[in-house]
Structures are given as structure tokens and as C-alpha cells.
Automatic annotation (TrEMBL):
An example molecular function term from Gene Ontology annotations: ferroxidase activity
GO biological process, one term: reductive iron assimilation
Residue stretches in coiled coil: none
Domain of life, per lineage: Eukaryota
Pfam families linked to this entry: Cu-oxidase, Cu-oxidase_2, Cu-oxidase_3
Protein's name according to its UniProt entry: Probable Iron transport multicopper oxidase FET3
Transmembrane segments: 578-600
Species of origin: Hanseniaspora guilliermondii
Main location: membrane
Length: 650
């Protein structure tokens, strides 16, 4: 077995690593950093993205006199430049925020974006100024709201950081932004998703795959030209297979990390991942070619009949000739990113034995309110009352004690310069792309998928694994169904960094942990202190910028009053029970009663049964009346309770 996989790996490397890319001599190039100003205001509008439906979207007014626009602007800056972006909340009621995905924010943690982690939410009529440099980073990135799935409504855009010393030669550059699109807005979809009527946590099915915020995109190309082509998946749910008919990619960068040029005819791109490739066009113009996007349909709980799984876009050499037809391939033979090797300054030898190993088990289950949540180690992330960065800044010597950050935030404290290993075991049957803020990490191990009827393949800490000498590095990596991955990084970026599934549905379900990295250095660094603008934003939204997760400023180890997740299902009442019932029941109150009653049949403690019915917002007496046969055992207890209530009020 081991021998066989070795041979496979070896041949894979032989046929994919290429020397076609031409390396530039960049030794004499110098560059003076610039500052770029943006002044954006959020708003609500309508836009027909896919040509089939006028959807509610989030618009951007760039305050340039042109009014609100959609899609959002794309940003292009150079390595080392400064970005100063003022985000004005123009919504009537919604909070907002912006995160620059993949940027390290080294020394500027408060500019990272996730609300209640590094910043206060920006309230309507309030403005937050993001001010940071892109020191030492280049490549393909993106920005998006980090508030309540807002980026699924279009509050996002591509970010390209040009490197004046980019190592490979090319003639032209192009960005292709891929995503999925929903006709309904995120707030409407979330209400249906986080709902007792969706007990399996089935994610809403998108209507279409899109490219550059449209369908049927045309890309006019020049023949005989080497393009640096940047694929950026700004979606919130599905991974996509990407290929171009009869053309080959040479991958040179993933998630901002340069890699040894690697040939592939197909890419598998999860949401939030980026692949930058060299693409040499043909030297003739007698045909046009299909740019294909294909759903990873294993991520969909149901595949509606009218869902178009493959989308065709047009790579046009010659507009006089007809557009290409859909391109069909025999197999989905895509690049395994585990085989990539970082290039140049990004090449880093396998980090040594970890100082701290954090094991995270992913699972999904229902809590007592009937809703399906996602868990790391049985904890579903629940926002603290004070953004975690502000708890760090105000907690003095207590900042190294994870207690400060709450029992429901899954906070881990990392000490300065420690080697951190995260072992992630996916007990769930889905694929999940995980993103770490503030870092790229080495991916040293990734297990194969396990079928639904098998037991999950956990990482074995005593196992005999052979790790790559120069592991792949990136900021977003997927785990296969019921399998695992292991990543390592050095804790050399003081800050509070969110680690979460980038499927927005799963983040909403709580699939996140928080790394509090080197809290003492955060406290003692000038640039990490809250700007006065930031304090104003907190005041406007009514969030304290001092205190522990429970907003306690006196005793940082007293978490009384902190936000907590709902209780577990009562014993005997299983998630399966809820699922079975919801699918067989009618809508409305009658449906709820049926669920409650069915669940009750497996529950032997009448006290717990009543508790559960009340949790569902129902009157136990009513439930019993409507379902006499199934609940007779409850009747006496309810009567007793009523009697004792009556006695109390006398
Ligand atoms: C770089 O500069 C040095 C000194 O000016 C010169 O000798 C060398 O040819 C230059 N190299 C390139 C690639 O331009
Ligand atoms: C942003 O634009 C608005 C409207 O033109 C203006 O009032 C505001 O001063 C601008 N803010 C910044 C930081 O330039
Ligand atoms: C793309 O083509 C489909 C038909 O294949 C059409 O229904 C849709 O409106 C087109 N979308 C756009 C944005 O042109
Ligand atoms: C905005 O944030 C504040 C503070 O967290 C919160 O109380 C409020 O409910 C939020 N508003 C909305 C519409 O979510
Ligand atoms: C925002 O400011 C405008 C103009 O000052 C005012 O009309 C509006 O009521 C304010 N909205 C909120 C939510 O405070
Ligand atoms: C941005 O940050 C730099 C460095 O801290 C500071 O000098 C500058 O005043 C800031 N600009 C704004 C508009 O906040
Ligand atoms: C796609 O959108 C990007 C901006 O994100 C733009 O730079 C690029 O030119 C567009 N490509 C095509 C083919 O329209
Ligand atoms: C492409 O380049 C080759 C060799 O340089 C040349 O012979 C050919 O005419 C070019 N084709 C086009 C379409 O420009
Ligand atoms: C397309 O047709 C026009 C008119 O016949 C011609 O002038 C042009 O050169 C053609 N373009 C290409 C790329 O063949
Ligand atoms: C989609 O693409 C795959 C791969 O090219 C192909 O096998 C399949 O037939 C296509 N069509 C549909 C409807 O899935
Ligand atoms: C999560 O809960 C399950 C069931 O109670 C238990 O077996 C498991 O050990 C828990 N996992 C962790 C990491 O605490
Ligand atoms: C952050 O900056 C420090 C030096 O100021 C450097 O040692 C460290 O490697 C940087 N971390 C990252 C993730 O870039
Ligand atoms: Cu996920």
C-alpha cells in the first residue's frame, strides 16, 4: 500500500513539474510604496447578476459622484503599499465590516475585520477607517464583509497585490472571479437555514455558478500570449472544478504563496482559495474555447432538476467565429494541492515538533431548540460580549488565561514564536474549506475521504506518517469527508486570529475557533492600540471595548453572564428523531406539535419532555390536548404542575 502510493506520487511529480515558466532576473528592480485611499458606503439595491433574476444585492457607493454600484470595485496595489479605506455603513439597520482575506495585518490586528473578534460591528451611519500596509505580501486575494454572511449578497471584491519582483515572465494579466449565486438574499436564506424545520442543516442550493459576477462571460484573448491568470473563488459555499478546453495551466501561486511551476489541466477551487496560473494561448485564431466551471455537487444535499451543474464561459480568440460549446471531460482529474512546493522566499522546511498541538473535532448536531449547529470539540462558536482583541488589550496579566475569552468562543492562547500544530478531524460527511486569519500554514498531512457508512479516519498522533520536506503552504485548505488534515505554523504574528470554515452557512452554524497569539506583545505594541475612530465605532454600536467575554471589567476571570450556546438535546431525544419527524410533518403549528410529540416518544423523563415542548415555544397542555394518545403519560405531570402554580399564587 505505502509502496504503491509512493510510486504514484513520484510519477505525479515527474509529469507535472515543468520548466516551461521563464524565471525573471529581478535583482535590480526597486519600488517606492504608495498610499491608496478608498471611501466606500454600503447600500441596498437590485441587480440581475445571472441574467435570469433581479436580486437584492449590497451596493457600493465609492463617493466618486457616480452613485452606488454593483459589483463592488476590484483593488490593485503593489507589494508594500498602504491601503486607507473608510467604510461607511449606509444600511438602515444592518451592521457591517470588511476583512481583507489572506493579509497578515502584522501589527494592525484591529484592521482585520471579523466583528466581535478584532473589531466592533460598524453600526448604521458609523464609519470605520481601515489603515494598513501590505508588507511582504503579493498575489491574489479578496476582501469581503465579515458580518452575517453579507458577502453572499455581493459585498466583496478581488484584490491583486502586484509584485514588482514577480519571479516568472508573462505578457498579460487577467482576473477571473468565480462564485455561486443565490436569487434570495442572505438574511432570508439564513432564517430558513437556521430553523427547526431544517433539522439536518441542509444548505440552501444556489441558483447558478457565476464568473466575474455574470454568466456566459466572454474573455477576449490574444494569440501567442502568456497570461498570468488569477482564479479567485469569492463564493460562500461550493467548490468548483475549473478547466479550459484544450489548454493547460501552469500553477505558480496559491493563496499568495509562490510555488514551483506545476502543470495541471483542471483545478479544484474551494471558496476563498486562489490559484494563479500561467496560460500560453494558441498561435492560431481559428477556434474559440470553453472556460468550464463545474459544481462539486457532492456538497449539495439535493440537486434540483433545473440546476445547471456545468457552466460554459467563452475564451474568444476570434469574435467572427461562433462561441464554443460546453466542453465535456471523461474524468475530473484535478491538481492535488498537497503536491505543491512553495517557491523562493516562500519555501520553508517542515517546521519541527510542535510546542502546542491543538486537536479540533468537527461535528454537526442539533441543540435543544431543534436547530442544527456545527461544533469544534462540541462547542459551537458564540460571539463574546466584547471583541476578543479588546479583551486582550484590557486584561493585563490575565491575558494569557483563556478563561478571559469565554467558555463558548473556543479560544486558545498561543505563546510567542511557538510552533503550533492543528490536527483537524472531520467527523462530518462533508468537505470543508478552513481558513486561518493572519497566517499561511504548512499542510503536512491530509487523509483520504471515508464513505458515509464508514467510521471517520482520525489523525493518529502515534502513527508513522512521513511529512513532506517542503510542505505546501496556503491560507485556506479543505478537509475531505470524514477525514483529517494537520497543519503547522509559527506563532510570529501577535494578534487575535479567527480560524473557521469558509462556507458561510457553517460559520453561521458556529464552526470557528479563536487563536489569541502572543497577547503580551499585542498589549505592548503602539500600533495595536485601538484608534480613536475604532472606539467611536464601538460606542455607536453599544459594545464595550474593555472587559472579558462577559463584558466584566472588574474580574476578568468571572464569566457570569457570558453568551452561551443552547442546551443539548434531552437524553433519549435524538437528532435523528427530529429529522425523521420534520420530514413527515405538516407545516405550521400542527407540524411543530408532531415533531415534539414524536421526539417525546423516545424520551422517558416527563420533566424533560415538558422542558422540550416549552423550548419549542409551545404550551405543553395544548400539545397534550392535540395528541392525546401519544402523551397520556404527560397529562398527570402537567396537572400536578398547574396545581402547584395555582398554590404559589395563592
Ligand atoms: C543590475 O545592476 C548592476 C549594477 O548597476 C549591473 O551591472 C547589472 O547588469 C544589472 N542587472 C540587470 C539584470 O539589469
Ligand atoms: C467620504 O465621502 C463622503 C461623501 O462624499 C464625505 O462626506 C466624507 O468626508 C468622505 N470621507 C473620507 C474619509 O474621505
Ligand atoms: C446566460 O445564458 C443563459 C442561457 O444559456 C441565459 O438564460 C442567461 O440569461 C444568460 N446570462 C447572462 C448574464 O447573459
Ligand atoms: C449590531 O451590533 C450590536 C452589537 O453587537 C447588536 O446589539 C445589534 O443587534 C446588531 N444589529 C443587527 C441588526 O444585527
Ligand atoms: C443616519 O443619518 C441620517 C442623516 O443624518 C438620518 O436621517 C438617519 O435617521 C440616520 N440613520 C440611523 C440608522 O441612525
Ligand atoms: C494610518 O496609519 C499610519 C501609521 O500608523 C498613520 O501615520 C496615519 O496617520 C494613519 N492614517 C489615517 C487616515 O488613519
Ligand atoms: C474580471 O473581473 C476582474 C476584476 O475582478 C477584471 O480585472 C477582469 O478584467 C475581468 N475579466 C474579464 C474577462 O472580464
Ligand atoms: C505566433 O508566433 C509564431 C512564432 O513566433 C508565428 O509564426 C505565428 O504567426 C504567430 N501567430 C499568430 C496568430 O500571431
Ligand atoms: C473579422 O471579420 C472582419 C470583417 O470581415 C475582419 O475585418 C476581421 O479581420 C476579422 N477578425 C478576425 C480576428 O479574423
Ligand atoms: C458536466 O460535466 C461533466 C464533466 O465534463 C460531464 O461528465 C457531464 O456530463 C456534464 N453535464 C452534466 C449535466 O453534468
Ligand atoms: C464531545 O461529546 C461526545 C459525546 O458526548 C464525547 O464523546 C466527546 O468526547 C466530546 N468531544 C470532546 C472533544 O470533548
Ligand atoms: C510579523 O512581523 C515580525 C517582525 O516585525 C516578523 O518577525 C514575523 O515573521 C511577521 N509575521 C508574519 C506572519 O508575517
Ligand atoms: Cu464547512
Amino acid at each position: 500500500m505505502l509502496f504503491k502510493s509512493f510510486v504514484l506520487l513520484f510519477t505525479a511529480i515527474l509529469c507535472h513539474i515543468s520548466n516551461a515558466a521563464i524565471v525573471r532576473d529581478t535583482s535590480n528592480i526597486t519600488y517606492t510604496p504608495q498610499t491608496h485611499y478608498f471611501n466606500w458606503t454600503t447600500g441596498q439595491g437590485h441587480y440581475n447578476v445571472d441574467g435570469t433574476f433581479d436580486a437584492e444585492v449590497i451596493t457600493c457607493d465609492a463617493n466618486d459622484g457616480k452613485g452606488p454600484r454593483f459589483p463592488w470595485p476590484s483593488i490593485k496595489v503593489n507589494k508594500g503599499d498602504r491601503i486607507i479605506l473608510t467604510l461607511n455603513n449606509g444600511f438602515e439597520t444592518k451592521n457591517t465590516s470588511i476583512h481583507f482575506h489572506g493579509l497578515f495585518q502584522n501589527g494592525t490586528n484591529q484592521m482585520d475585520g471579523p466583528e466581535m473578534i478584532t473589531q466592533c460591528p460598524i453600526a448604521p451611519n458609523s464609519s470605520f477607517t481601515y489603515n494598513f500596509t501590505v508588507d511582504g505580501q503579493s498575489g491574489s486575494y479578496w476582501y469581503h464583509s465579515h458580518t452575517k454572511g453579507q458577502y453572499m449578497d455581493g459585498m466583496k471584491g478581488t484584490v491583486v497585490i502586484e509584485d514588482p519582483k514577480f519571479p516568472f515572465e508573462y505578457d498579460k494579466e487577467e482576473v477571473l472571479e468565480i462564485a455561486e449565486w443565490y436569487h434570495k438574499d442572505i438574511d432570508t436564506l439564513t432564517k430558513k437555514f437556521m430553523n427547526v424545520y431544517n433539522p439536518t442543516g441542509a444548505e440552501p442550493i444556489p441558483q447558478n455558478l457565476i464568473m466575474n459576477n455574470t454568466m456566459n462571460l466572454t474573455w477576449a484573448v490574444e494569440p501567442n500570449t502568456t497570461y498570468l491568470l488569477r482564479f479567485i473563488n469569492t463564493g460562500g459555499f461550493v467548490s468548483q472544478y475549473i478547466w479550459i478546453e484544450d489548454h493547460e495551466f501552469e500553477v505558480v501561486e496559491v493563496d499568495g504563496v509562490y510555488v514551483d511551476p506545476y502543470k495541471a489541466s483542471m483545478l479544484y477551487i474551494t471558496v476563498a482559495q486562489r490559484y494563479t496560473v500561467l496560460l500560453k494561448t494558441k498561435d492560431t485564431t481559428n477556434k474559440n474555447y470553453a472556460i468550464m466551471q463545474k459544481f462539486d455537487d457532492t456538497m449539495l444535499d439535493v440537486i434540483p432538476n433545473d440546476l445547471v451543474l456545468n457552466r460554459t464561459n467563452y475564451m474568444m480568440y476570434n469574435t467572427n467565429l461562433s462561441k464554443p460549446e460546453e466542453n465535456i471531460v471523461d474524468e475530473l482529474d484535478f491538481l492535488d494541492d498537497f503536491n505543491l512546493v512553495p517557491y523562493g522566499e516562500y519555501k520553508e522546511e517542515l517546521l519541527g515538533e510542535p510546542d502546542q498541538r491543538i486537536t479540533l473535532d468537527v461535528s454537526m448536531n442539533n441543540l435543544k431548540n431543534g436547530i442544527n449547529y456545527a461544533f469544534f470539540n462540541n462547542i459551537t462558536f458564540t460571539q463574546p460580549k466584547v471583541p476578543t482583541l479588546m479583551s486582550v488589550l484590557s486584561s493585563g496579566n490575565d491575558s494569557s488565561d483563556p478563561t478571559v475569552y469565554g467558555s463558548n468562543t473556543n479560544a486558545f492562547v498561543l505563546e510567542k514564536d511557538e510552533i503550533i500544530e492543528v490536527v483537524l478531524n472531520n467527523l462530518d460527511t462533508g468537505t470543508h474549506p478552513f481558513h486561518l486569519h493572519g497566517h499561511i500554514f504548512q499542510v503536512i498531512e491530509r487523509g483520504v475521504a471515508r464513505d458515509d457508512d464508514q467510521t471517520p479516519l482520525n489523525y493518529d498522533p502515534t502513527g508513522n506518517y512521513s511529512y513532506p520536506q517542503y510542505p505546501m503552504r496556503r491560507d485556506t485548505v479543505y478537509v475531505r469527508p470524514q477525514s483529517n488534515f494537520v497543519i503547522r505554523f509559527k506563532a510570529d504574528n501577535p494578534g487575535v486570529w479567527f480560524f473557521h470554515c469558509h462556507i458561510e452557512w457553517h460559520l453561521t452554524q458556529g464552526l470557528a475557533v479563536v487563536f489569541v497569539e502572543d497577547p503580551q506583545t499585542i498589549q505592548s505594541t503602539n500600533s495595536q492600540q485601538l484608534t480613536s475612530n475604532h472606539k467611536n465605532v464601538c460606542e455607536a454600536v453599544g459594545v464595550q471595548y474593555e472587559g472579558n467575554a462577559a463584558a466584566n471589567t472588574k474580574d476578568y476571570l468571572d464569566l457570569t453572564g457570558e453568551n452561551k450556546q443552547h442546551k443539548n438535546l434531552p437524553k433519549g431525544f435524538t437528532a435523528k428523531g427530529i429529522v425523521a419527524m420534520t420530514f413527515s410533518c405538516l407545516s405550521g403549528i400542527l407540524g411543530l406539535i408532531t415533531i415534539a410529540v414524536y421526539g417525546l416518544m423516545g424520551m422517558n423523563d416527563p420533566e424533560a419532555q415538558i422542558d422540550f415542548i416549552e423550548e419549542l415555544g409551545l404550551d405543553p397542555k395544548e400539545v397534550v390536548d392535540e395528541n392525546e394518545e401519544n402523551t397520556s403519560s404527560l397529562t398527570s405531570l402537567i396537572n400536578q404542575n398547574e396545581q402547584s402554580k395555582g398554590n404559589d399564587s395563592l
